Amino acid sequence: MATITQLLTKQVRTLRLVSCESRCLHTSRVANVAMSKFDQNSPMPYEKLVKNLEVVKGRLNRPLTLSEKILYSHLDDPANQDIERGESYLRLRPDRVAMQDATAQMAMLQFISSGLPKVAVPSTIHCDHLIQAQIEGNQDLARAKDINKEVYNFLATSGAKYGVGFWKPGSGIIHQIILENYAFPGLLMVGTDSHTPNGGGLGGLCIGVGGADAVDVMADIPWELKCPRVIGVKLTGKLSGWTSPKDVILKVAGILTVKGGTMSIVEYFGSGVDSISATGMGTICNMGAELGATTSVFPFNQRMVDYLAATERQGIADEATKYKESLLSPDPGCKYDQVIEIDLNTLQPHVNGPSPLTCAHPSLTWRQLPRPMVGLWR
Known about the structure:
Layout: H1 4-31, H2 46-60, H3 66-72, E1 89-92, E2 96-100, H4 101-113, E3 123-126, H5 137-147, H6 149-162, E4 164-167, H7 174-182, E5 188-191, E6 205-208, H8 211-218, E7 223-226, E8 229-236, H9 245-256, E9 264-269, H10 278-287, E10 295-297, H11 302-310, H12 314-322, E11 338-343, E12 350-352, E13 360-362, H13 371-375
Parallel strand pairs: 2-3, 2-5, 3-4, 5-6, 8-9, 8-11, 9-10
Antiparallel strand pairs: 1-7, 12-13
C-alpha cells in the first residue's frame, strides 16, 4: 500500500511534468509564427525553404539572385529538378492562392469537381472586380451587391465549405488587402489577376495566373512554370522632389517596352532601394505587369520591416530578419541576364503615352512634343 509521502511525491512529479509540457507548448506556439492572422495553422515556411535552397545551391554551385532563391526554394523536388533559365519547366509548391471575384467563380467550380474536402494551401477570394464605378462609391457598391447577389452567395458559401477566406464586396482592392494582410518576404503566391505582382513590394514572388493554375495549387498539384530569366534593375541615389516610385517603373517601361519583360522576373537591387517605401515598391511591382514580366520583386529591407510592423505583423518581420542574407537577399556576385541602371538622383517625373505605354517622356520636356500628341493627354 502506497504511503502518503509516495502519493504526494508522485503528484508533485506529475505537476512538474505538466508544467514543463505547458512551457514547451507555449514556446512552440511562440516560435511558429503564422503566415497571417487569418492562417494561424499555417506557420512561416522559412526553415523548409532554406533547407530546399541548400540542396539547390549544392547542385548549381553558383551565386543566386533573390528571384532564384525564392523560386528554387519552393521546388517540389529540389534534388532532381532540371534548372536552366529560359529552358526548363519548374514544378513548384506556392505558399498561397488569391482570387478575384470574376475569375474565382470558375476556379471554385473546378475545385469542387475535384472532390477534395479542403484547399491544400491558404487561399482567399476578394470581391472587387464586379463593382462598376458609375455614380459614387456607396451607390455603386449597393448596385453590385444587388446584381451579383447569386455570385457573391456562391463564393461566400463555397469558400466557407472548402476553407477559402472570403473578403466581401466593399472590403477593398485585392492587391492592397494582400499587401496589408498576406504578403511577406520570400512568399511564392499565385493570383488570378494580372497585377498580382503588387506583393513584390514586400519581397515576395507573386505571380498572375489563370483560374486552372490556381485550382492546381489549391488541389495540392505541383504548379508548372517555365524557369524565368532574371532582369536586374540597379537603383542608386535617392528619390527626391516631385519624383515618385511610379517614375521608376515608367522609366523601366520606356527601356524594356511592353514585351521586354516576357518570361523574366524583374529584380530591383542597389542602394537606391532604401529610399522607396514598401507601398512605393508595391506600385513599381504592380505596374511591372505592363512589361509582360512574370513578376517583379525587391530585396528585404528596413522599409519592409517598418511596413510589417505598421500592419501588426512584427513577428513576421522578426522571422524574416533572421533569414535576410540566406534567403531574402541576392548573393554577392550573382549574374543577371540583363542589367538596367537608374540613378534616382537624376530621375525626373515622367509621363508615358499616349500610346503605347512605353513612350516615356520626362515631364519637364513634354511640352516640346508635337502638339497633336500633347492634346491626347488633355
